[in-house]
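User: Could you check the structure of this?
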Amino acid sequence: MFSLVARKEYLKDMCKFGKGLTAYCNSGQIYTDLKEKLGSIDIRLKTMAKANILSFTELKKNRISYNKMDTGGEFMGHTPVREIWFKCNNLGLPYISLKDS
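Assistant: Sure, the predicted structure tokens are below.
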């Protein structure tokens, strides 16, 4: 699994890595050979991507707090750097706003 952002202004110390990564999704395939370490999570950059992707496999290496009764389905990911609140859209899919994080 991997994490990917589409806007480089969210990252500061991008560097090239090895052979790169090709990912396949509903809109086709994307390739990137740029990454940065954000806390304990490796983040890849692809400026032409249509969405930001955060790997829950990577996030689960840290602590996650979830209480549907108290938060309306929202949950918190705890990283060594900060806490990240995830909200759910009207279909129940989790998301974060990088602008607000």
